[in-house]
Amino acid sequence: QRSWLTANPFARQLGASSYSIYLWHWPLVVLLTYAGEQANSQWMALGVLGSVLFGELSLRYVENPARKGLSRSGLWVQSGQLAVVTSAIGLAAVLVFLGVKLSHPVVSQRLDARVNVIADESLNVKPRRDDCFVGSGVTSPACVYGGTEVKAILLGDSHADAVSGGLAASVLKKTDGILDLTYASCPTIFGLNIVDDNNKTQCKEFNGWAKEKISEYSEDIPLVIVNRTSVYALGQHNIKEKMNIPLSYFNSYNIEITDGFLNEYSAGLIESACELAKQRPVYITRPIPEMMVDVPKAMARAMMFGKPDPQISISLEEYHARHKVVWAAQDAAVARCGVKILDPLPYLCHDGRCWGSKDGRPIYYDDDHLSEYGNKLLVPMFKQVFAASASH
Description:
Layout: H1 9-16, H2 18-34, H3 41-71, H4 75-102, H5 104-108, H6 113-120, H7 129-132, E1 144-146, E2 149-156, H8 158-168, E3 176-182, E4 193-194, H9 203-214, E5 223-226, H10 229-234, E6 248-249, H11 259-277, E7 282-285, H12 295-304, E8 313-315, H13 316-337, E9 340-342, H14 345-348, E10 349-350, E11 353-355, E12 357-358, E13 361-362, H15 372-375, H16 379-391
Parallel strand pairs: 2-3, 2-5, 5-7, 7-9
Antiparallel strand pairs: 1-3, 4-6, 8-11, 10-11, 12-13
Helix pairs in contact: 2-3, 6-12, 11-13
């Protein structure tokens, strides 16, 4: 009470309105994030001042009058007033929900049609995803896409799931189809365990089951392996808390990335691919480029605020620095047992960069998974699989 820092009118008033400031700061943070200005120091300063200003105003003209008004009433009157206010807010929420639901075309017209196209790309995943893509258990529904005659087998994690539409669109005949054996967060490395906070992932067991399942099919049917391989060895690419922390292990988990682990990881990738190549032709896909932001969200928000297309991309140097361990292991598998490489970079990258959009439309449904629009860019790449199979 004797300190000049706190014993002054400004500090006392700031303390009195601190909770109101806290309530107001978050909507402003969200607004700056939507506007893409969360790192702009000028807007950050305005956000802080706005929080203080709105907090002071709401304290004086909303909170204090309401509190004083309620204090002059008895318990039953207070309860009635609160019930009326709560009911009014609830009714307003229901009316807004129904209004949006029943008049969605009108509501969507508030935005430029291009914004809706961009934003909707976040939902543009394969139609049977919920039925065919698994994230727990040991087995897969083993869905077949396209025709009923299986001409290729797809094995891998969510990146494989994301490109299954492109592979299915690459078949030579309408009667041809592909077998889907995809499992969330499960790279095709036998004996590898995945770090899973929910204890649902049984990747090692699934890979064992998948190997047996694949053996049931004719040896002339090629196997296409697609994985987000680098993330399990090196950690997330854009989540600070999970960067440089491996998401997998063989025997015992170590939070640090060691040369020993990377060597074991690479050896596991090579041995797994070569074991599968004993039975049939095997194609390994180079890693899909990972963007640093959610592409549809970033593009849609920029357009909503009248900003130009942010042209989301990463450099080829960033890509190769991220994936050099995996590339080296894949190259070693090619040399050891003749697996073939499918390279998406010629279709997703140009002018020294890998892009998150094409012709003003996102090719990802988030920051690293290709959408149904994006995976069709890889049809020429996947056609190599069926062309080679047909030539035998």
